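Q: What changes when flavin mononucleotide is included in the input?
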Amino acid sequence: MLHVISAMNSNSCCNVANLCLCLSEFGRFLRDSANKRQDAYGGTIEKRCRFVLETIAAISATIGEHRTAIRFSPFGIFQSMDDTNPVALYSYLFQQLSQIHPNLAYVHLTDFGSTPEAGELMGQLRKEWSGKYILNLSELTPAQAIQHIENDRADLIAFGRHFIANPDLPHRLKNNLPLNEQDVSTFYTHDAAGYIDYSFYNGRHESE
Ligand SMILES: Cc1cc2nc3c(=O)[nH]c(=O)nc-3n(C[C@H](O)[C@H](O)[C@H](O)COP(=O)(O)O)c2cc1C
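A: The predicted holo structure follows.
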């Protein structure tokens, strides 16, 4: 069965992916292209992961581990924020999360803005995290998403752009219905156009 969630709404998820505030904050600690610290938060992989692990510990202690989640783009190269050995870095981080915070709601990985081999590597990283694993792979078709679930590469697949363009995306996927075309010109804009004016499959609009 395909479980679908939106890649856009992070809720209590601690978003370490892409171009969020968190990339500049957490990524600045995690990745060796950016972290040039010589204190307890820089240098080795263990030290670079410390800030993220302490943050997860603090959030979990406050709201509960089961309400806390984290999103990464381990192979993201956006804004030159890369790492020389992301597999080693995230393997260690996921092992630590599995040991210390096994009951996190989920770990969510995206390949948005990543190296081409990211999808394959993210599937491999799955074995390092013991809990729920969400994959967001760019431009994924519904058929490909089902294949990833069937091949046990993820527990859930997150869609971003399909969800923007299809307010009833789960219904459409479940019933094999065609998807609305995305209007890329309205992405990253700030008014209602392109956010609440896509139609449901039955022709109804969200505002009706
Ligand atoms: C308009 C728009 C806004 C987005 N905002 C965020 C964001 O705030 N944080 C984030 O981590 N990713 C963000 N993304 C990336 C998506 O979460 C997702 O990783 C990306 O669109 C690839 O998945 P998709 O092919 O299913 O859309 C955004 C993408 C789009 C198109």
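Observations recorded in class: The CA atoms of residues 94 and 175 lie 35 Å apart.
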